[in-house]
Amino acid sequence: MPRVASGSGKAEAGLRHASLPRTSQQRSGDFAEQRALRLLQQRGWRLLSRQWRCRWGELDLVASKR
Hints:
The chain is α+β, with helices and mostly antiparallel strands. It is built from two helices and two strands. It is flat.
């Protein structure tokens, strides 16, 4: 799934390709997102979606209380 860099305004610049290495900032963000998901799941939340996009932006995690 393509990933748009926040604040870039250019979809092509932020596309995630398997051949491109992740930056340290992207890896740090991925790690923090994974930790947040783990915490939510431990507290009874269920993941509905990741990187949910609409015309106004993106939500990294969408979750619902079980």
